[in-house]
Write a structure and sequence with these properties.
With 269 residues, the protein is an all-alpha fold. It is built from 12 helices and 3 strands. Strand 1 and strand 2 form a beta hairpin. The radius of gyration is 22 Å and the shape is flat.
Length: 269
């Protein structure tokens, strides 16, 4: 029986080898149940790819931070709060659930987490994203180290040794690699039309809704990163909202330097 646990990652490949999601159902207000389910799956896939991209684009896995910069984060946050300077508010998960529905928000969070997990597995095992999606459940069953050993043996061309040591798992990995080479399913990409399904599926407020959820996710990641760097909780709670509208790099390069740069004393005349 065909496995369906990762059905959201089904995708087609364009002529450049990018994995894309193509729109194949015309948009109508009177969507039937099958078309609604298709739109739901596309929307969920888009959230999954958003989660996957966060792993690569934000850099929040890096906990190193010079002590001087860490101290500036703490000091300036306190100064700005004392001056009642607040960053743009980001809606909490509770507020989003109250506004858009608990089931909807829970589904989105599950899709984002799935995308993050798949991308992390693909990086840990050094395998294409689509392969990682298929191997994720195997990691849970036999352990990531065993899956990694199989992948390494297959990559080295030691197929017989892999099959001898790991049986069906090795055969599956070999088949996935052959299929990936054949179809070019090795990149992560998503077209504008698929992203538009967010708005189509969630209705007239879809654009604002998607923006607010993305901001909430980025703020969560920023808070986690800041606290890992040793920034105190109060300062992390303050600064996380500065990361909500952009990725890690943009916030550090374009937004935070002006706020964090030490005040220069006026030169004596």
């Amino acid at each position: 029986m065909e496995k369906s646990s990762h059905h959201l990652w089904s995708a087609e490949t364009d002529e450049t080898g990018n994995v894309i999601i193509n729109r194949s159902v015309a948009e109508r207000e009177d969507l039937d149940d099958a078309e609604k389910e298709f739109a739901r799956a596309i929307a969920a896939s888009a959230w999954g790819f958003f989660g996957a991209r966060l792993v690569d684009s934000n850099g929040f896995d890096r906990a190193e931070m010079p002590a001087a910069i860490r101290d500036r984060f703490n000091i300036v946050a306190k100064e700005l709060q004392n001056d009642s300077v607040e960053p743009q508010k980001v809606q909490s998960w509770i507020e989003l659930s109250q506004q858009y529905g608990t089931d909807t928000i829970n589904d989105i969070r599950a899709s984002i987490v799935n995308g993050i997990q798949v991308r992390q597995v693909s990086k840990d095992l050094n395998v294409p994203f689509i392969i990682a999606a298929d191997l994720l459940s195997d990691c849970d069953l036999v352990g990531k180290e065993n899956v990694k050993e199989v992948v390494d043996l297959i990559r080295e061309g030691k197929v017989e040794q892999a099959e001898k040591n790991f049986g069906k798992l090795a055969s599956k990995v070999q088949k996935l690699f052959v299929e990936a080479r054949k179809t070019g399913n090795h990149k992560i990409s998503i077209d504008d039309v698929a992203a538009k399904y967010w708005e189509d599926y969630y209705g007239e407020y879809g654009k604002l809704f998607v923006k607010e959820v993305k901001k909430r996710v980025r703020a969560d990641l920023a808070y986690e990163w800041l606290t890992k760097c040793g920034i105190d909780e109060a300062a992390a709670n303050y600064w996380k909202n500065y990361f909500a509208d952009s990725d890690y790099g943009k916030a550090l390069v374009e937004v935070l330097p002006k706020a964090l740069s030490p005040k220069k004393d006026k030169e004596e005349e």
